[in-house]
Structure formats: structure tokens, C-alpha cells
Protein 1
Amino acid sequence: MDKLFAGTRKIYSKTLLIGGLAHFIHDGFTDMLYVFFPIWQAQFSLTFTEIGFLKTLFSGTMAGLQVPSSYLAYRIGEIRLLLLGTVLTSLTVCLYGWATAPLVLGCLLIAGGVGSSVQHPLSSSLIANVYTDTGTRRAALSMFNVAGDIGKLFLPAGASLLISQYSWQAASQAVGIIGIGIAIILFKNSKKISRNVQQEHAKCASKLVEWKAGKGFWALLMIGVIDSSTRMGFLTFFPFILQENGAGVTTIGLVLSLVFAGGAMGKFICGTLAAKVGILRSVIITEVFTALCILGMLAFSLHIEIMLSLLLGVALNGTSSILYGSVPDLVTEENRKQAFAIFYTATIAAGAVSPWVYGAASDVIGIKTSVILVALVVLLVIPLTIPIRGKLTC
């Protein structure tokens, strides 16, 4: 009995490790782009609209393939597809440095989006399927989200440091090699997961299940869409706000690292807040605080912006773990994989389109006015919490 318990616990830890490492590297790759955008703008003479479009190419591809990747996993296996996606994205990051024109860069970003499209739905469903208890599942998904925030913290910071010492080309190649190393670690650990568990999940996945979701799921989805679109829209152009205030590449990397460090802290802070005041109230509090922090970044000097960046990260990224962790509470177990795929598709798609939209707006009305618009859109989540009341458990 003790051996069975130890084996089960090992499966849990290995599954969480695989999902966490995949989230670490893919989220790190995604948010590392914010460091490169000002450099690419200068090198390729790009407008804000074109910068936003580059972000849309990566995130849009990643979003559009979430649902197809969840179905493809039924045929070739979740872990195998996760490994292939990690290798593909890592290789494209290595090749950024050889991009000689925006068109080549755009093609690489599309390829990177293809590779990253497998990560969110497959990692989330792997973890949710192993951790069947509501409380432990929410905690495991929270740890999974923290791993992504740690990637957001270290990869942009490491890239900015390498850029300041060497070049942006060398930085992208070094980070891409790290991604390939992560893929090797994933491969070695994936072999240790029990075959019986994988076969059981594959058997459940092979069944055709009618998709059903209530109003609560769709309301949560809309909250996620607003949260993602405002976060991605703001972060894409935040480096340019810092640049206007005299920040260099190293300072921009530092501020972004503080924002992402705050995001990792925000997972725990928002989790504690949710336990104290409830999930929906914590969402409202964090989104209102997000709007205030965004407006504060426009009102203060660079030194104060640096000091506020940690608080901004707590508010900006902390809400997401609450939203992702609530998905299983609003759908049946049979619909869980599709629910995660649909949720990630919608939220990442919103985050993909918003930089393009806000970039076009910035070219017309100015970047500061666009950022004010972002702050106001955040507040739209408040009425959307009404259909979910009484349907979530902490």
C-alpha cells in the first residue's frame, strides 16, 4: 500500500514538474518579446501598429491552434506533443538573430506560435486529470501558473542582460538553447510517468463527448478575455512608456522583471485574498487595482515607476491564476480538456489582437491616451462577475 501511495505521489510530482517546466519556458519566450520590441522597432523602422502586429502573429497563431492541438493530442499523446512544441519554439527563438527583415521575423514568430500553442491546454489538462480533488487541483494549477511567472521573470531579465553585454542576436540564441535543454529535461522525466495513467487518460480522451457549458463558464471566459487583452496590450507598449521617460534596455529589462516577479507573488497574494474574501471579490479588487496602477505609470517619473512596478505585477498578473483555476469548477470532467483549450484560445487570442488594436490607436491618438483606454477597459470585468456568483468554490 505504501509503495502504491509512493508511486502515485511520484506521478503527481512528475506531472506537475513537466507542466511547470513547459509553462516556465513557453511563458518566458512569450514575454521576452517585450524586451525585443523597442530594439526591433529601431532596427527595422517599425510603427507601433507594426510592432503590435508582430505580437499578434505570435500570440494569434498560438491562440488559434489551442483547440486543434487538444484534439491532436488524442492521436499522438499529450506529452509527446508538448515535447515537439517546446523544441519547435526553442528553435525559432534561436533563429530570431538571423532575421534580416520584418517578413522573416514574422514567419519565425508564426512558427514559434505554432510550437507554443500546445503548452497551455495540454499542461493544464495533464495536471487537472492527475489532481482530482478540488482543493489540491486548484493548488497544483496555481503552482503551474507560478512556474510561468518565474519564466516571465528570468527570461526577459536574462535576455536584457545579454543584450546589454553582447547583442540581441546573441541573447535570442542563448535563450533558445536553454529552451532545448528544458525539452531534454521534459523528455527524461516524461518516461517516468506511469503508462497506466497515460493509457487511462487516453481512453477517456478517445470518447466523443458532447460539449456543454453554462453561463458561468462563458462569463468567466469574458473576464479572462478582458484580463488578457488589457494585460498584453499594456505590456507590449509599457517599454515605450519607459523609453519616453529615459529608460535604456537594461532598465526596461529590470522593470519588466519586477513586474513579472510581482506577478509570481500575485499568484500567492490573490490566492490568499480569494480564501479571505471570495474568488469574485478578489477578482474585482485586483482588476480595480490594476487600472489604478496602469494610470499611475503614466503620472509618475521613471524612478517612481520602477518602485511601483512590483505592485503593478501583483495586480496585473495575479488575477489569471484565479481564473484558470476556476475553469474545472464550471464544466464537467469530460469537458475539461476542451474547456481549457477554449478558455486559453479566447484569452490568448484577445491578448494577440489587443496589441495590434492598441498599437493602431497609439499611432493615431498617442501612446499615453491608448494606455488610459487600457486602464478603463479593465473595469468592464465588474458586471461580468454577476453570472458566476455562487458557482465557484475556493
Note: The domain at 2-388 is CATH 1.20.1250.20 (Growth Hormone; Chain: A;).
Protein 2
Amino acid sequence: MNEIVVTGANGFVGRALCRLLVQRGYGVTGFVRHASNSVGGVRAWVDSSIDFAGINGTWPLGLKPDCVVHLAARVHMLNDDAADPEAAFHATNVEGALRVAEAAVQRGARRFVFVSSVKAIAEIDAGRALREDDPPLPQDPYGRSKLEAERALVQYGIETGLDVVIVRPPLVYGPEVRANFLRLLDAISKGLPLPLAMASAKRSLVYVDNLADALMHCATDPRAANQCFHVADGGDPSVAELVETLGKHLQKPARLFPVPVSWLRLVGRMTGRSAQIDRLVGSLQVDTNRIRSVLDWQPPNSTDEGLAATARWYRSTH
């Protein structure tokens, strides 16, 4: 396998994946909205069309990839201002993904790696780590769109012979992280007191470079054919342990104080933030035995190493 297309190549995960692929000697074309800030060694393919509607018109002449890794998506947002979020997620994450897959097949691609999310099957686990074949129960438009895309792509693969690989990461962190993880870093750095000392439920995480390594294997290893994989660091810290470890690496000891989890859930209901509180205090672990056994994959970095790298980046930029 010599040529790989990465959609969302300038995104958080896309940049990490592109850097790794270039380092390993693969030819990489990055599908991006804007050419600026592309990773060195990556051929930029600029397409600003909505939901990939223009992909056939902008497909670079002569580009015949072995594999497409589809990262570009409409992402989960706490305050979604779309008039119809369900329709907006469907348009990008389902219809758009199918357009990319169809265009890839027309140019001879043999494999399509779809980066889904653990949210396609659950927001919390049921007392044990989530496996790939667990009954899916997505809870929001984003999760439902990812599950629908998985199913549509698998069916398309059956009809066309395209080898479709599904990857479901949990929370991804690392240098350049944004959203809630960045807000957590801000809070710890500022010494804000956090009522999370009793938040003991375990949460699976994946360091961005670990996810990039797993995606490279999924794109290039023949054994990944038509598989679905959960990817995580392993170790699965509680939120309290996560905050303490980040505080250590930020050199800003975390200011945790104990509040019963039931009280936090009550505050969530009273303030309309139950979903956010559940993500903090609920258990969400994923079982990564399949990727470890099928591909002999091991995360190249430990959670502590990933958190240390994230803290170094934060301290250098804030």
C-alpha cells in the first residue's frame, strides 16, 4: 500500500495521522478545506463544498489511492445552533461519508477506514467494557449519525467489494486538543477548585498519537479487512485520577474536593446539564482486545506519557 488519502487532514487527529504516514514513507494526500497549515510532505487537496458534494469535481487528476481514511465529520457540539441537528449530522456524517466512499471506489481504492466514535454505541457502559458487537444505543444526533454511517458504509462495501474498516475511539486527547479537555486544562492551570474527588468511575481515553498509529495499521494491515475496532490507551483512569495526573504534569497540583456523585447529578438535572455531568461521573470503558489480538496492536505511548506531552504543549502555549 503506497498512497493514502486522509480527509480532515488538517484536523486534530488528521494532522497526527498525516505526520506518522509521511514518516513511514507513505504517499499522503490530505483532503482539506483550506491549504494553509498542512503537514509537511502531504499533498493538499482543497475542497470547500458542503457535505463533500463537489468531491468528484475536485478529485486530483491521477490520484488512485489504495486507501481512504475518512476523518472529516460534523462533530459533537454541546450548544448546537443548527435548526435541525439530526438532519445536519445525517447530511455530513452519513450522506457525505457515502459520497467519499463512492468517489474512492471509482478511483480504484480497495480500503475505506471510517473513523466513527464510541458514541455510536453508548455514552456509558453497563458495568463492563464495551465490545464492538454490543447492542448500540446512541444517545444524541452525533452518535446516531455515526452509527447510521457505519451501517451504510458496511452495506456499500458488501455491494461493491470495498473493504470497510470501522474504528471507534473514545475521548481523544493530546497536544492541540480543544473543547472540554482544553477547558479542564485551563481549570487545573488556574487552580480552580473542582468537585470531582469522589468521581471514581473509569473512563477510556486515547492519546492522539496512539490513535494515529492504530489508524495507520487499519489502513495498511491486510488483517484489518472488514473489521470494527475499539481503540484506547488502556489503563482507564477515573476523572479524579485524570485531574491529579494532569495537575502533576502541569506543575499545578489539582484542587479536588469531595462532593457525592448523586449531588453532582442533581445539580446537572437542576441546571439542564445532566448530559455533561454524566460524561464526567459515569463509567465509559471500551474493550480493545479485538485490535490487540487481530492486528497485534499495542499503543506506543502510555496514558501517563500522553498526558505529559499534552501538559508540555499546554504550558508552552498558555
Note: The first helix runs from residue 12 to 23.
Protein 3
Amino acid sequence: MSIEALRDQLPDYAKDIRLNLGSLAADGPLNDQQKWGTFVASALASRHEGTIKAIVAEAEGKLSEEAMTAAKAAATIMGMNNVYYRFVHLVSEKTYSTMPANLRMTVIGKPGVDKIDFELWCLAVSAINGCGMCIDSHDAVVRKSGITTEQVQTAVRIASVVHAAAATLDGEAALS
């Protein structure tokens, strides 16, 4: 399976998603590790088996084993953090924001790859999961270290298109 195979599975009404998948995979302001790590983390956050398999297969020749593991870890840790911090942000009781999270998240400090790439992947997953606190936090870190707004936007564009592809295929499966 590959991104091309994933694109071929999308119905005609999702032509824009097909075209966006192709263009985002082809070029852009991110280096290969940043781009393919974003694709992998976003696919895992999408939770759609076919999307995950296609994107991981495509990325296997483009990411080191360490980067592949870190991209998976970014999706995993943000799956936890996005729920927790979205709750803290949305709940009316402000006492929660003063309490320690008491959640283990050491992978953020030692991801096994360039920390900025990991933070960018966490940002993309946070966009998928809709956690404003995490989006702001990760955006501040990557921007402070030199990632441009165009690079951040590209990572979030990847996340949005991967998520749309997964949602479309989930919807098609439900209709069959």
C-alpha cells in the first residue's frame, strides 16, 4: 500500500483530497523527516487502518527507524495530552489548571529525534484532536526554534488532508 493506493481508494467526490495528498507528499517547505513524520503521526491520529497502513508503508523508506518510532510516539502521547489539556482548557472550574497533570510524558523531552521535528508532529496531531492549549504550546516551541509559519501551516495542511482522507474512507465503509 502507498499514498498512491490510498488516493485511488478515495471516491470521485473527494477529488480535492486526492489532489492535496499528492501535492503535499511531493514537495513543500518541510524536510523529509518533518514531512513524513507529520504524515505518519497524522495517520495514526486519524485512527483509520487503511490510511495508517498506506502512509506508514510510504514513509518506511523515507524515515529512519528512530524517526518512525518518534512519529508514532507523538501521535500516542498527544492522544493522551490532547484529551487532558482540552478538558483543563474547557472546564469552567479553574482549579484544574493549577493542579499537576501527574501524567507520564517523558517522550516529549527525549523523543529520539530532533526535538523540533517531534514538536511539529505533536502540533499536527493536536490540530487533528482539537486541543487549543496544545496547539498554542507546540506552536510557540517550534516557532521559537526557527520553524516558519509556512512550515507550521504545511504540517497542519498535511494533518487536515490525512484526516479528511481517513474520514472519507470511514464514511464510505459505513455506507457499504
Note: The chain has eight helices and no strands.
Protein 4
Amino acid sequence: MIWNLGSINADNSYRVPHLPEPGETLAATGFDCGLGGKGANMSVAAARAAARVMHIGAVGADGAWAKDRLLEYGVDTQHIFVVAPATGHANICVDPAGENSIVLYPGANHAITEQMIGGALAEASPGDILLMQNETLGQQFAAETAQTLGLRVAYAAAPFDAEAVAGLAHIADLLILNEVEAAQLLAATGQELSDLPVDDVVVTLGGDGCKWVSNKEKITQTYAAYPADPVDTTGAGDTFTGYLLAGLDRGMDMADAIDLAMRAGALMVARHGTADVIPDLKEILDHDFG
């Protein structure tokens, strides 16, 4: 089972002719509002990949729709709490090439307490997985609690924070980064991925595929990307992570779990939106990737 300490956002997505420059006012050519947040995206992806997922998070009084939507997608919501601040939201600009820029308001995501986290993880079992990102509070407490309880700790270190990574690297069993975050980590710490005190590091490389650094096995593997026609990269990395963790939770080895996750990511970038359009396992298994 996967326990995901993660953000829940309303995603306001604007299609624009190009990403805004400083001081520029830009007219959007389209607008959508849907469920998002890195945490919610990963929970939905893992659930759609046939994993059992318990989301640990918070919404405001305005966020009942988000909790209902997660439940509809197969995510267990009994540890999503209603708190005083408004539900978090993201304003997303997406250009015709599918690149994006995002402004986040954390809101309820920053009202999660250690008591909420501890109460949820008290129900976990040894061998379960704790998944975390950097859009909530309480990661250090959650990781230490999970380690004590015998859970595996997976850390998708976004939005990137070098200090947070340094504080959790010795606890995490799996670290997931994109190419930019990996470069930022090297610049901030001077450590190569192979020098980190983490058993496994997975780096997504966009159209260039993925790299797996196993510090436990002392190997590095690279994987080519599947063909894709990108229209919106928003949520693709979260989809990859959710599918990766679901595969590992179901007993796949790392190579097979990465392959499944890359297939999911290739389908995801061809869609506009975030959690609401994440592909399910049947779509991926039925799709001909050429």
C-alpha cells in the first residue's frame, strides 16, 4: 500500500501563445479548472495503476469537490482533513509546445500537522511505501516515523529544495528528480547522484527518457523514451512517479516499473490537464507504442 503525504490543489490552466515575459500582459486562448497538486496527481496515477493509495492531506472548507474527485478516482480519502485556510491552487500557463510555468498558493497544504500525519501512519504496515513531495509540511517527521514503522520512503523532491533533500537523503530509500532538479542538487551539494546516501535515484529526462542510479547495486541504467506527441507536460512527471511507485508496490523490479511509468508519461504529455486526465492501466496496456 502507498501512503502519500501530498498536496491537493485546484489547477487553473491557461493556454497561451507563449509563456509570459516579465511585465507582460498576455491573453489566454483557453482555460480549464481541475484537480491538481503534485500529491493529488501522484495519488491518482498510483490508484489508476492498480495500487491501493491512502492520501494524507488537507483542503479548506471550499475543497469538498477535490476530496470527492480523489475518491472517484480510487484514492482512499479518510486522512484528508478540512482546515481553516483555503484549498491550495495553482495558476498554470501552457504554451503551444506543451511547456509550462506555474505559480502555487499552498493554502491548506501548509496546515497539515504532525498529529494528522502520525495518526495516519499509525495504520500503516511494515513494507508499505510512504511517498512525499515538497508541497506540504511535515516531511521530516513523516519520513522518520515511516522509517521507525518499517515503511519504505520514496521522495519526489519537487518543488526542489536542496536543504530539504539534504535532510531527507539519509532516510529516503528512493529519490525521484527531473533533470533540472538533479543539476540543482549537484550545484548545491557538490555530490554526484552515486555519492548520495540513497539506495536508488531515478532521474526523468523528458524526451530523452530516464536514468536509474542504483547506489545499492552500484549500477547506472538509462532508458529511452517512448514516442509521444506532447501538447502539455503538466503532470507528466507526477504521472511517472505514481506509476513507478505503484509498480514497485505490486512487486515489479525497478526496470519494469520504470518502463511502465515511462509508458504512462508518454500518454500523459499528449493530453491537456492534470489529475483528471491521467491514463489508467488498461489504456497503457492496450496502447501500441510502436
Note: The chain has a mean pLDDT of 94.
